[in-house]
Write a structure and sequence with these properties.
Oligomer: single chain
Low-confidence stretches: none
Number of domains: 1
Helix content: 25-40%
Shape: globular
CATH superfamily: NADP-dependent oxidoreductase domain
Strand content: 5-15%
Mean pLDDT: 93
Order of helices and strands: EHEHEHEHHEHEHHEHHHEHH
Length: about 325
């Protein structure tokens, strides 16, 4: 049986950008990251209760896992939780690709178990899910989640695990004020009813909802996110202005409001943090109470922006 129920902080820390090499055009964000800078992130995150780190083999083809392990080195393993993923599209051709990919992740991260292991994309639920059972039984993974799966796929994965006494304990999908497909498809309700933790990634839409960018201050040219978002920034203005105003009343930023909104909806936002200073905003978001009127107003403005920020890797939910 599963060790104990999955417990997670209010906000998880994402390391997608940690897979960038820092060279312009290499990696999704074109981040300029340094080992001392990322250690500083860890040193500030841990005492503030941000102890769940979400990574994946696919982030920089293992670079994110390696860099995360370096940043966490010297800490007791019980002080933090590691979340990483099996990506079917990267599966090798051995007899047990899931165990192989996990073993490589464990080696890169210098640990003998992962707290939360995800099937990253639902390439073939019936094929990949059963391979998780022996890994759960051996304790190499403690909890299972599925990412980018629709309701039917979540239910199928849960049924397969259920036959061995385990279950899907977490779902991780793109969810933001601009992209509420999982809510409309009933996935959030399903998670609430079944005590499944819903993790929301891209809550800040890669920076487009931080309020730091607009038509006059576009996202950095040459990055993949600039190509996706710069053209729609004018349509986000009403929403980001309102977020900034709601934040200003509470000594917070528009980004903090976007994160607080996700928490208010019952989600655990996964927020990418590349600088220690960003953690102050997560502390503010965690403590922020939005009113029902504010939530409804923000969602109406998000709908009115009428943009489609679905990632190239995502299907309709």
């Amino acid at each position: 049986m599963t060790s104990k129920a999955l417990t997670v902080p209010a906000v998880a820390l994402g390391t997608w950008a940690w897979g960038d090499s820092g060279e312009a055009g290499d990696g999704y964000f074109g981040s300029r990251l340094s080992e001392p800078g990322l250690r500083e992130v860890v040193e500030k995150a841990q005492p503030n209760g941000f102890t769940l780190w979400d990574t994946a083999v696919a982030y920089g083809m293992g670079r994110s896992e390696t860099v995360l392990a370096q940043a966490l080195s010297g800490r007791d393993r019980s002080e933090y939780q590691l979340s990483t993923k099996f990506t079917p599209q990267l599966a090798g051709d051995g007899p047990d690709p899931v165990a192989d990919m996990l073993r490589q992740s464990l080696d890169r991260m210098g640990t003998d178990y992962v707290d939360l292991y995800w099937i990253h994309n639902p390439a073939d639920v019936a094929r990949w899910t059963p391979s998780l059972i022996p890994l759960l039984e051996s304790g190499r993974i403690k909890h299972v989640g599925v990412s980018n799966h629709n309701l039917e796929e979540i239910a199928l994965a849960d049924r397969i695990l259920g036959e061995a006494g385990f279950r899907v304990e977490a779902v991780q999908n793109h969810y933001s004020l601009l992209y509420r497909g999982s809510e409309r498809a009933g996935i959030l309700d399903h998670c609430r009813k079944n005590d499944v933790r819903f993790f929301a990634y891209m809550v800040l839409e890669q920076g487009a909802l931080t309020g730091r960018y607009g038509p006059a201050h576009p996202l950095p040219e040459g990055s993949s996110r600039a190509a996706v978002y710069n053209g729609i920034l004018p349509r986000l203005r009403a929403l980001t202005d309102r977020m900034a105003a709601i934040g200003a009343d509470r000594g917070a930023s528009a980004a903090d409001v976007a994160t607080a909104w996700a928490i208010a909806k019952g989600a655990t936002p996964i927020v990418g943090v590349t600088k220690a200073g960003y953690l102050d905003g997560l502390v503010r978001a965690r403590g922020m109470e939005l009113t029902e009127e504010e939530i409804a107003e923000l969602e109406a403005l998000g709908d009115a922006a009428d943009v489609d920020t679905r990632g190239w890797w995502e299907r309709e939910m």
